[in-house]
Amino acid sequence: MKRSRNVTLFVLLILLALCIPSQATRAQGSIKTRFGIGMNMAMSVDNGFGLGFRGRVSSPINSDFSLAIGMGFTGFVLRGRDDASFVFDPQVSGIINLPSTTPDAEIYLLAGLGAYVPLSQNTSSNESGPSIHFGIGRVQLLQESSFFYEINPAVIVGQTAVQFILPFRVGLIFGN
Question: Are the C-beta atoms of residues 71 and 36 closer than 8 Å to each other?
């Protein structure tokens, strides 16, 4: 359990460092941070189907690439309260915007590192550890915000096993 706390602390420190813009960037007023919230539906080999919430903050480096920090909580509760398990999964991602043929929709690729930290002892394997993720998504411009959906598979490298999780996410992005 101490190892999972160390991994979580390390990821949170990276997330915090990425959230603090440099003084030059703030002075120029060029940062356009975006905030996103959404629902997370995940399939896990060990835990089955889970539902949760996710938040993400991203800052564009240029028009093609952004850095993002996301945190989510997923509950695998379909086996009932007694067998429910809950997971915290922070992620640091790079997001690449692909060329678009329409001005109000974009497809993007995202990849990065994170952590997978069970918050309860009811998980089938109780494996926690670093994660590697790679996904694809689409964002659709609305009036003052954007709607997104994405699939973002991850491999969790546990102490004694490797797990696979397949999340599907939908939500809103603010700060176009």
Answer: no
> pLDDT digits over 99-136, tens only?
988 888 999 999 999 999 988 765 555 578 899 999 99
Three-state SS letters, the chain: CHHHHHHHHHHHHHHHHHHCCCHHHHHHCCCCCEEEEEEEEEEECCCEEEEEEEEEEEEECCCCEEEEEEEEEEEECCCCCCCCEEEECCEEEEEEECCCCCCCEEEEEEEEEEEEEECCCCCCCCCCEEEEEEEEEEEEECCCEEEEEEECCEEEECCCCEEEEEEEEEEEEECC
Structure pTM? 0.78
Alpha-carbon span 60 to 31, nearest angstrom:
7
Rounded Cα gap, residues 156 and 115, in angstroms: 8
Tokens of 37: 């919230």
172 φ, ψ (degrees, to nearest 5): -120, 145
